[in-house]
């Protein structure tokens, strides 16, 4: 689920473990 998309500027809106 970690597909560096447009939610890079946002404070993790999904299950982005970055």
Please provide a brief summary of the model.
The chain is mostly loops. Helices cover 0% and strands 0% of the residues.
Report what the structure shows.
This protein has 18 residues and is mostly loops. It has no helices and no strands. 0% of the residues are buried.
Structural descriptors:
18 residues; little secondary structure; flat
Describe the SSE topology.
Layout: no helix or strand
Ends distance = 11 Å
Say what oligomer this is. single chain
Globally, the shape reads: flat
Mean pLDDT: 60
What gyration radius follows from the Cα positions, in whole Å?
7 Å
Strand content: under 5%
Q: Percent of residues in helical segments?
A: under 10%
Give the total of beta strands.
0
Category by helix and strand content:
little secondary structure
Uncertain ranges: none
Number of helices: 0
Summarize the main sheet.
none
